[in-house]
Amino acid sequence: MTDYPKLLSTLVGGGVRFIIVGGAAATAHGSVRLTVDLDVVYDRGGDNVGRLAAALAPHRPYLRGSPEGLPFRLDEATLRAGLNFTLNTSIGAIDLLGEIAGGGTYQTLEPDSLPMTLFGHECRVLGLARLIEVKRAAGRPKDLEAIAELEALRDMNR
Question: What pLDDT does 34 receive?
Answer without folding.
Answer: 81
